[in-house]
């Protein structure tokens, strides 16, 4: 979930489906996803959220909900845009645009459910494509945890067993079925056990334990023509009790679904941790390598222009001005890398910008350390946290650089190691270099792995380009850089099983 905008009174999640999308692929259907964007001024848009990609579908029903903070006092202009994804790049600019719509959030919440034709640009329809959006206020922070297995499913593949997956639907007030969860596919297995999953209670059944829920089990086909194995209807109350059989027309029994566990738990939010005493510590790493050029020269990225700013300062101000509110002493350690440091002018790959290596860090009762080490084009991040076992400290490391990482294997391993720690790494690219390696490290499309195949425990890297959003670069940069932090913080402490130091009062459920 993205961080809600400051001052917003509530959160809104939107369910999205499309019909008759343009077919951008030769020999197969499009692989669409839908992104939500918010206007940030000057006709420019900043991405808020995106759904999953669905392969080979012109009529996708997206499972992932799009979340935005609702502010009554603001006109929040939103765009919902569908793209055909044919590469591994996170950047949507190199994907085929299948059409979009523009509406204000006020229009969306007042309509509740609406369907509208997609447009390639204003006044130009995107074929017969339409988009349907259903919006709900986020009222309940509880989460449904389910663990499910199946037995003796029907065989649907001629040359092998079925490749089953599950879909859960809730029935909305209009009587229509709305997708709320889609499981992973388990290959060639008639007795699958799907991995444990969770769905927000609000998303799962709108907080109504008796709201009808439909469960479908289907055999996955790569061309998108999935075969239904069976389905049944239930509700959350029943799911907490018993084993259910799947039934389908012309079948006495097409398999058995067994609910191994169904639990309802409270979900701590980002604000629960912050208001419970979690401090966010901010550390900055600044690139001083030769490619930045002489700071006295106007073509240097470090050049202080007549208006007193440059891309580095804008990046630090943008992120630091937000983070400082969550750190009591508001003192941030700043390191440089790749420079000759006075008075000896010796080359240092890592040095404190205040030239006080014994005390370049934030002051506090805890002894916390984050060091950026740059050697050529390779960095390693080390973190020592003296309050292990509690949710009292979280770290944000901001790296501002003009260059691409060439020692990618060591960098990947360093990030995989750091993913086990309470930290987020934000990389801001300045200048006009090729940042494909940075985009690879961000890996919003999957899990980053080391060269040996070890996966990152958490997604901790966020890469953004710097001064690209005139006339409001600072506001957009801070949003793009920090949007993932609340989710990453909550996921880390949830992974560790650590509640807030001072948990909020929670009613028994």
UniProtKB/TrEMBL annotation:
<dbReference type="InterPro" id="IPR036465">
    <property type="entry name" value="vWFA_dom_sf"/>
</dbReference>
<dbReference type="InterPro" id="IPR035892">
    <property type="entry name" value="C2_domain_sf"/>
</dbReference>
<dbReference type="InterPro" id="IPR000008">
    <property type="entry name" value="C2_dom"/>
</dbReference>
<dbReference type="GO" id="GO:0005925">
    <property type="term" value="C:focal adhesion"/>
</dbReference>
<feature type="domain" description="C2">
    <location>
        <begin position="1"/>
        <end position="118"/>
    </location>
</feature>
<dbReference type="InterPro" id="IPR010734">
    <property type="entry name" value="Copine_C"/>
</dbReference>
<dbReference type="GO" id="GO:0071277">
    <property type="term" value="P:cellular response to calcium ion"/>
</dbReference>
<dbReference type="GO" id="GO:0005737">
    <property type="term" value="C:cytoplasm"/>
</dbReference>
<comment type="similarity">
    <text>Belongs to the copine family.</text>
</comment>
<protein>
    <submittedName>
        <fullName>Copine 1</fullName>
    </submittedName>
</protein>
<dbReference type="InterPro" id="IPR045052">
    <property type="entry name" value="Copine"/>
</dbReference>
<dbReference type="Pfam" id="PF07002">
    <property type="entry name" value="Copine"/>
</dbReference>
<dbReference type="GO" id="GO:0005544">
    <property type="term" value="F:calcium-dependent phospholipid binding"/>
</dbReference>
<dbReference type="GO" id="GO:1903265">
    <property type="term" value="P:positive regulation of tumor necrosis factor-mediated signaling pathway"/>
</dbReference>
<dbReference type="GO" id="GO:0005886">
    <property type="term" value="C:plasma membrane"/>
</dbReference>
<dbReference type="GO" id="GO:0043122">
    <property type="term" value="P:regulation of canonical NF-kappaB signal transduction"/>
</dbReference>
<dbReference type="Pfam" id="PF00168">
    <property type="entry name" value="C2"/>
</dbReference>
<keyword id="KW-0677">Repeat</keyword>
<feature type="domain" description="C2">
    <location>
        <begin position="127"/>
        <end position="251"/>
    </location>
</feature>
<dbReference type="InterPro" id="IPR002035">
    <property type="entry name" value="VWF_A"/>
</dbReference>
<dbReference type="GO" id="GO:0005634">
    <property type="term" value="C:nucleus"/>
</dbReference>
<dbReference type="GO" id="GO:0046872">
    <property type="term" value="F:metal ion binding"/>
</dbReference>
<dbReference type="InterPro" id="IPR037768">
    <property type="entry name" value="C2B_Copine"/>
</dbReference>
